[in-house]
Amino acid sequence: MKGVALTRGLLLILGGRVTELLQQLGDVALLTGRTLYHAFKPPYELRALIHQMDHVGVKSISICAIAAVFTGLVLALQTTYGLARFGAKAYVGIVVSLSMVRELGPVLTALLVGGRVGSGMTAELGAMKVTEQIDAMRALGANHIKKLVVPRVLSVMLVLPLLTVLADVLGILGGMVISQYEFHVDAHLYLTTIWRNLRLADVLSGLGKTVFFGFLIGIVGCYNGLEVSGGTEGIGRATTATVVTSAILVLISDFFLTKFFWWLELLA
To answer: Is the confidence at residue 187, as pLDDT, over 80?
Structure first.
């Protein structure tokens, strides 16, 4: 009897967790649909969009730049050590550029922006929810999705590719510096191998990912902010959930997006 009761209890807990997960997925899907609908419906909130782009993009340049430079330094250092065993140090440029453009640049930038911007969105919207400012907007007849969610989601989608381009360039240049001064790889040879072997499809596949990453970061940050409950403690929990969830979604979606763009390249 105890075993049956324990099994039934575990099944009830599991069923409750599954039901809660499905409810959250449904709420996120509903928020996604409403966001896309209001994004294409006039009037457009251009001033709010520009403000959010400044907040997301300009204020994230420094952290993305530092991470990209040192990622390029480490990547070139490790790659050249390995290539030197086979007498292929001259190819370090194309290895570093492909790694940065196709994978490390987009993913690292998305993770950093997701941690900084996603948590900020959640905290800001959560504070508005707790202080009933969103309820006041509804009472005045304003659409909070149009005013608050759409500018934030679009700003991340627009700015993240630009930050990724910056990260790619700085990472490649960082790799060139360490290759030249540590392993005496000529800078002209380094850049020439990149110019001759790096394709436009490599760049576009990496930038294409960032648009999806930005959408995921924006939706997760806004959803958790709008669902905050429990006062200031709830804001803290929602902020933590945003950072963890956005990072996991970026890493998971990166695999499927890589497969998708690889399939498109095969078709082309």
So the answer is: yes
So what's the pLDDT on residue 226? 85
Of residues 182 and 210, the one with the higher pLDDT is: 210
Range of the domain at 252: 45-261
Residue 43 backbone zone (phi > 0: left; psi -120 to 50: alpha; other: beta): beta
Digit-coded pLDDT (tens) for 49-101: 888 888 888 888 889 999 999 999 999 888 888 877 777 788 888 889 999 99
Whose tokens are 């950072």? That residue is: 243
The DSSP string of the chain is -HHHHHHHHHHHHHHHHHHHHHHHHHHHHHHHHHHHHHHSSSSP-HHHHHHHHHHHTGGGHHHHHHHHHHHHHHHHHHHHHHHHTTT-GGGHHHHHHHHIIIIIHHHHHHHHHIIIIIHHHHHHHHHHHHTTHHHHHHHTT--HIIIIIHHHHHHHHHHHHHHHHHHHHHHHHHHHHHHHHHH---HHHHHHHHHHH--HHHHHHHHHHHHHHHHHHHHHHHHHHHT--SHHHHHHHHHHHHHHHHHHHHHHHHHHHHHHHHHHHHH-
Taking the CA atoms of residue 217, residue 223, residue 229 and residue 231 in that order, the dihedral angle to the nearest 10 degrees is 50
Is 199 among the domain residues? yes
Domain count of the fold of the chain? 1
Does the pLDDT of residue 2 top 60, yes or no?
no
pTM: 0.88
Determine the pLDDT at residue 1.
56
In a domain, 183, yes or no: yes
